[in-house]
Each structure stands twice: as C-alpha cells, then as structure tokens.
Amino acid sequence: MTWNCDDRLVTTTDTDSSVLLRRGFALENATLAWNVVGIVILAVAALGARSVALAGFGLDSLIEIGASTVVIWELSGTGEDRQRRALRLIGAGFAALAVYLLIQSTWVLAARFHPDHSILGIVWTAVTAVVMFALAFGKARTGAALDNPVLKTEGRVTLIDGLLAAAVLLGLVLNAAVGWWWADPLAGYVLVYYALREVKEIFTGEH
Fold first, then answer.
1. How confident is the model at residue 127 (pLDDT cuts 50, 70, 90)?
2. pLDDT per residue over 136-173, tens digit each?
3. Can you spell out the DSSP letters for 114-164?
4. 9 - beta bridge partners?
5. What is the set of domains in the chain, with CATH numbers?
6. Coil, helix or strand for 176?
7. What is the per-residue pLDDT for 128?
8. pLDDT tens per residue, range 41-92
9. pLDDT of the residue at 78
10. C-alpha span between 168 and 177 (Å, rounded)
11. Residue 67: partners with Cβ closer than 8 Å, 6 or more residues away
C-alpha cells in the first residue's frame, strides 16, 4: 500500500488490476492484428482452392475481429449491462457463421464439389492453431484474474478458433494427401457445431 503524489491511496490491488487490464488489451490487440492479416491470406487461399472450409475459417476470423473489438470496448468501461451487450454481439456473430457454413457445406456435399489443394491454407492454419492456443491461454488467465466474464468468454472464442484451425488443417491435409474431398465440407460442419455451442452458451447465460 503506497501514496501517490496527489495524496491518493493506491493499493497493490489497484496496481495489479492496471497491469492485468494492459495485458488484456495487449492480448486482444494481438488477436485483432493476427486475424486482420489472416482474412487476407485465407481469402487468397480459399479462392485459389475453392475451399468451403477455408472460406468458413476466414469468416470465423472476421467474427474473431469483431469479438476482439467488442472486448476492447468492454474493457474500456464498466457495468454488467455493457458486458451483456458485448456477449450478445459475439453470440450474434457466431449464429451468422453457423447459418452460412451449414448451407455452404451441405451444398458442397450434395454437388460433390472437389476443392483443390492449398499449401498456403495448410501452412497458415497450422501456424494459426499454435498462435490461437497461446493467446487463449493468456486470455483465460487474465480474465480469471480480473474476474471479467467477457474476456474469459472471448478467450474461449480464441480457443475454439485454434481448434477450428486444427480441424480445417486436418481436412486440407486429408484432401491433399489421399484425395478425400469430402473432408473439406466436413470440417465446415465442425465449425457449425462449435459456433452453435457458443451461441447456446452465450444466450442461455452458461458463460
């Protein structure tokens, strides 16, 4: 416990909270920057390979950008009402992603559309999986220390982003290695499952 130059009491908890907030902002800004770059790379890879999984993962990255923006906005203020609105915005993004991927993956399977191979997609999703797992771990610890439900929820979003990157990577590798074209839209269904699960947990208050 110390006194600052304005004779205002500054506790160790105040200092710790300030450090944790800065860490939260840094983690979200890193996630934001990574996904901005990722959208461009995934768009090029998805168009080149005509891959529904890569296109879906690109949309997931877009939602992650929105989620990070929402968390940065929420960390800048206080109040349960702001937290509820932030969570609902994240949930709405996941709902839109689930609808798109469900329609697109079903169409690809019904039409028996064969995507091409994508080395760029394989490399990017592999690196992204590692990066997202590291960021998710940092957000989980920071969110728990701050007791901030929005940061903790967005940490789960980032964890899912890493899991989805691994699922898309598996589909791309199977398509490239053994010609299992259907692995690509099946990876899209994996994204649908996780997106719907997040929507349910957000809007039922399970987070």
1. very high
2. 999 988 888 888 877 887 787 788 788 888 888 888 88
3. -PPP-HHHHHHHHHHHHHHHHHHHHHHHHHHHHT-HHHHHHHHHHHHHHHH
4. 3
5. 20-203 (1.20.1510)
6. helix
7. 94
8. 999 998 888 887 788 788 878 878 887 887 787 777 656 676 677 778 778 8
9. 58
10. 14
11. 89, 90, 93, 154, 157
31 has a pLDDT exceeding 60:
yes
- Give the C-alpha separation, 41 to 76, whole Å: 30
**Cα–Cα distances in Å, from 169 out to 8, 102, 124, 200?**
54, 19, 9, 26
Tokens of 173: 């590798």
DSSP string, 98-125: HHHHHHHHHHHHHHT--PPP-HHHHHHH
CA angle (118, 94, 148) in 5-degree steps:
115
111 φ/ψ sector (left φ>0, alpha ψ -120 to 50, else beta) = alpha
